[in-house]
Design brief:
Elements lengths: L1 H17 L6 H10 L2 E10 L2 H9 L9 E2 L5 E4 L4 E5 L18 E5 L2 E7 L5 E7 L6 E7 L4 E8 L5 E9 L2
Antiparallel strand pairs: 1-2, 1-3, 1-10, 3-4, 4-5, 6-7, 7-8, 8-9, 9-10
């Protein structure tokens, strides 16, 4: 019975989230065509079970694997600059020297590759690969027709992490 209620709740949340429009279709088509937009992350989905166990052990935890994020996280994509400021919850495979206070995935790249395709459902898929960073990153961004988006970030030094969010016109 609990699993039936859980499935019904997830289906209801999916339907209610899918009907909200984050960016008008004409604006969405324009920013996707120009490849100049902002991705605003609203939720993080860590894959590391150590992080999930810590989250579940905290007082008031609901046993979820989703972290709601404060505004200000995401990335800005322009023709000549890819600026990223995302939190990171997970394990790095090797220690990298740098500022310990500058956690997360934060960098600016001027040398990056973009591959654009369309999924079977008609969504746009961007694969953005950095070239000029010490740690190579691959960003898989699926953009839905209502302006919402799902981002998966993988690296040669960290466990993957995913984010849910929406697009806006580049500032």
């Amino acid at each position: 019975m609990k699993s039936l209620i859980l499935i019904f709740s997830l289906a209801l949340m999916t339907v209610s989230c899918g009907s909200q429009i984050y960016l008008e279709p004409t604006t969405l088509n324009s920013v996707v065509e120009k490849k100049e937009f902002d991705f605003n992350a609203t939720k993080a989905f860590p894959t590391n079970y150590d992080v999930i166990n810590v989250m579940n052990s905290m007082p008031g935890s609901t046993g979820t694997r989703i972290l709601n994020l404060d505004p200000g996280y995401g990335f800005n994509l322009k023709k000549d600059l890819f600026s990223v400021a995302l939190p990171y919850f997970g394990r790095a495979f090797s220690a990298t020297p740098g500022d310990a206070n500058n956690g997360g995935i934060r960098f600016e790249s001027k040398d990056f590759r973009i591959k654009q395709s369309t999924t079977k459902k008609g969504n746009t898929l961007f694969v953005i690969t950095t070239v000029d960073q010490r740690e190579s990153y691959v960003f898989n961004l699926e953009i839905f027709k209502n302006g919402s988006a799902f981002l998966s970030v993988s690296s040669n030094n960290r466990q993957p992490i995913s984010f849910d969010g929406n697009l806006s016109a580049a500032k």
